[in-house]
Fold:
Amino acid sequence: MQVRLVVALILTILAMPALAQQTGGAPASQGQNQALASSAQQTSAPVGAQPLPSPSMTVPLQPARPYMFDAGPFGTLAIAGILSGMGMVQDNWTIDDKASNWDVSNAQAFLQKATGWWQFYLQGGAYNIPDLGVPFLSTSKTLSDFFGPLPVGYLKLVKGGFSAEVGELPTLIGAEYTFDFENLNIERGLLWNQENAINRGIQVNEAYKKLTVSLSWNDGFYSNRYTWLTGSLAWAFNSTNTLSFVAGGNAGQTRFPRSQPQYRTTALSTNSFTPTAAETGSSSRTGNTPTYRQMQKLG
Structure:
């Protein structure tokens, strides 16, 4: 049985996530969909010195307040960043791994425009995605084998409760965010291995009272084959409890892209179908406490 000890030292470039209870709009039903539900309801909100919806974090973590500046014709922009290092010691390590690993886990900056009818979000830099059950990858290899130095970046058009996004988008599926600084747990879990993380494609969102609906046409497991369709229905009972139903799958049959790294794109996952359901609530003591169910049809 493998035992790992992970130590992370979080430093900040411009801001550091604060361990504080989240306030504001209703949280979404599961991790990687939280930004969609909250931002759909807050797209026209004025931007002050308060934390912005992106990057999203699991309660009780909260994004730090960004630095705001006037960018002329682009309007008011917000910038923040994070710098973190990680060390790991373990026994019974797997093949291609070793007893100890040390690396930069995050050196990222976030630039965004969160007001007006057109908005954008850019997240760039170095990152590592430590994961249970697989050998540790260096940060440089993670960049080359996963999503590159600009893992998330999209343009967003907003009109009332409706919004449309195009670019490299966070997935609708899953109970965890992709990057370790967004989660209470530094390492991703075994279930996360079965989910996609970043999609290239287009997504539309509609927020009406307590209901938020999202629909996306994308490339699934970063396959560069635009045959995946994912959707989400989220109902906010109140400011701290949300019920969501999420599903995604390949609308066709994608040939395994052998030229791409197997870490992010596999034949079985690319051609899978994944329905999920989650109820998310929070309290002052436990923070985010999701009840989460997922099934997956592979191949």
User: Anything to note?
Assistant: Residues 3-294 form one domain. The longest strand covers residues 76-91. The chain has three helices and 17 strands.
